[in-house]
Backbone:
C-alpha cells in the first residue's frame, strides 16, 4: 500500500481554513497514484495548493463521518454519492454543484449521464465523478480452474459444482474478507438480484422494510448459509479486504475465486502484476435457476465522486471547483485507463484499448453499460441509519450468529 500522508494538521486548519491549501481526502488503494499525479500537476499552476490526504480504507468511512461538520473536516473528499452523502446534504454540509454542472456543457457532457446522475441527491449534483465505473465482478484464478478441469461458471449449478470440485482438491473455493462486512454484502446483493430481481431491493431502498420478507431474501440467505456450512469461504473471518489481505491471499493462489468490484483489477495490476498478467480471469455472476433477475444485471458502484465542504467559500471554492474539473479532462481519463480503471467519461470507449488489459476494460465497461439494472451497493444506497444494521445482520448471517430466518426477521424489524 502507498504510504499515507500525515492525517492531522495537513495544510489547512479545517474546512475553508488556511490561506493557500485545500485539504483533499481520498480512499487509499491501488488507484490513488492517479490522484497523486494530478494533484502535483494542479499545484504547479494553481495559486491555492491541494494537499492530498490518503486514508487507509479500513478507517475511511468512520473518519469521514466523524470529521464532517467539525473543524477537522476536509475541504474536498472522496465518496460514493447517493445515500453515502445524503445525511451531509440534509445537514447542509455540501456545496450544491448543480448550477456549476448545468452552466458548463463541457463539464456536464464529459461524463456518461447515468453515472453523473447516480451521484445526485434529490435531483441535485453534490459530486463530480473521479474514478472508473465499478461493477462487482467474479474474478477467478484461471490456472487453478484449468488444473481442476473447470471453466468459468455460467449458472448457479456450475458454480456449486466448481465449489465442490475445489473443496475435494483441498483448495479454498472463495476468497472473502469477513472482517469487512461490505465484502460479504456483495454475495447477497447478487443472489437477491438473481433470485428476486432488482425490484426487491428497490422497495427496500425506498423505505419498505417489509420487502426484507420477500421469499427471495430468505432464499438468498439460505444459499449463503449453505456455502458457509460447506466451508466454501475458508477462514474468511480472519481476512480483511481493506488492508489488501484478501487480494494478496487470492493472488498467492490460496483461493480460486474472489467476488469484488472492478477496482480489484487495478489493485492486482499495481500490487501483484505477475498474477494479474498470468493468472487473473473474470466472468459475470452466475445465473440462478428459475430466478426472476436478468443474468446480465449488475451490482456495485457506478463510480466514486469528489464533493466539496459547504464551508469552503471565495477563492478557495473557485479553486476547489477547478480541481474537480480535472476529473473531466482527457488526460485524467487516459491515466485511469492506463492504470486498469474503466473511465466514466463519454469518450471512454475510445480509451479502453490503452488499458494494460484491454480485454478486461471492455468487459467491465460493457457489463455496466449494457446491464438492464445496475443496483448501487446496499451500504451506499441506504442512509447510514439503515445501512449499519443491514451490514451488522449480514456479518452475523455469515458468522452463523443468525439463521436465514432470523436474518430476515432482524432486517424487517430494523428496516
Residues:
Amino acid at each position: 500500500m502507498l504510504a499515507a500522508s500525515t492525517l492531522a494538521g495537513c495544510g489547512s486548519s479545517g474546512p475553508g481554513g488556511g490561506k493557500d491549501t485545500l485539504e483533499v481526502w481520498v480512499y487509499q488503494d491501488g488507484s490513488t497514484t492517479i490522484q497523486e499525479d494530478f494533484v502535483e500537476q494542479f499545484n504547479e499552476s494553481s495559486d491555492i495548493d491541494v494537499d492530498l490526504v490518503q486514508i487507509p480504507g479500513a478507517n475511511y468511512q468512520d473518519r469521514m463521518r466523524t470529521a464532517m461538520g467539525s473543524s477537522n473536516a476536509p475541504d474536498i473528499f472522496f465518496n460514493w454519492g447517493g445515500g453515502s452523502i445524503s445525511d451531509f446534504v440534509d445537514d447542509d454540509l455540501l456545496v450544491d454543484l448543480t448550477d456549476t454542472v448545468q452552466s458548463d456543457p463541457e463539464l456536464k457532457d464529459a461524463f456518461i449521464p447515468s453515472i453523473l446522475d447516480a451521484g445526485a441527491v434529490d435531483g441535485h449534483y453534490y459530486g463530480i465523478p473521479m474514478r472508473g465505473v465499478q461493477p462487482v465482478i467474479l474474478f477467478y484464478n484461471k490456472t487453478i480452474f484449468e488444473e481442476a478441469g473447470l471453466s468459468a461458471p455460467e449458472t448457479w449449478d456450475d458454480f456449486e459444482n466448481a465449489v465442490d470440485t475445489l473443496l475435494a482438491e483441498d483448495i479454498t473455493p472463495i476468497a472473502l474478507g469477513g472482517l469487512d462486512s461490505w465484502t460479504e454484502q456483495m454475495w447477497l446483493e447478487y443472489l437477491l438480484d438473481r433470485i428476486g430481481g432488482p425490484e426487491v431491493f428497490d422497495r427496500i431502498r425506498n423505505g419498505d422494510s417489509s420487502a426484507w420478507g420477500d421469499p427471495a431474501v430468505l432464499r438468498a440467505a439460505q444459499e449463503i448459509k449453505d456455502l458457509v456450512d460447506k466451508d466454501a469461504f475458508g477462514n474468511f473471518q480472519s481476512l480483511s479486504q481493506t488492508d489488501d489481505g484478501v487480494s494478496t491471499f487470492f493472488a498467492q493462489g490460496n483461493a480460486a475465486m474472489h467476488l469484488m468490484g472492478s477496482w480489484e483489477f487495478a489493485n492486482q495490476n499495481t500490487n501483484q502484476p505477475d498474477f494479474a498478467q498470468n493468472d487473473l480471469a473474470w466472468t459475470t455472476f452466475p445465473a440462478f435457476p428459475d430466478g426472476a433477475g436478468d443474468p446480465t444485471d449488475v451490482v456495485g458502484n457506478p463510480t466514486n465522486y469528489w464533493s466539496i465542504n459547504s464551508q469552503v467559500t471565495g477563492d478557495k471554492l473557485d479553486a476547489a471547483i477547478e480541481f474537480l474539473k480535472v476529473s473531466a479532462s482527457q488526460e485524467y481519463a487516459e491515466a485511469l485507463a492506463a492504470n486498469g480503471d474503466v473511465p466514466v467519461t463519454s469518450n471512454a470507449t475510445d480509451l479502453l484499448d490503452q488499458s494494460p488489459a484491454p480485454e478486461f476494460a471492455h468487459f467491465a465497461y460493457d457489463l455496466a453499460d449494457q446491464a438492464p439494472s445496475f443496483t448501487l451497493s446496499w451500504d451506499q444506497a441506504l442512509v447510514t441509519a439503515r445501512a449499519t444494521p443491514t451490514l451488522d445482520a449480514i456479518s452475523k448471517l455469515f458468522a452463523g450468529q443468525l439463521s436465514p430466518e432470523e436474518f430476515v426477521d432482524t432486517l424487517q424489524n430494523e428496516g
Notes: Residues 21-133+302-350 form a domain with the D-Maltodextrin-Binding Protein; domain 2 fold (CATH 3.40.190.10).
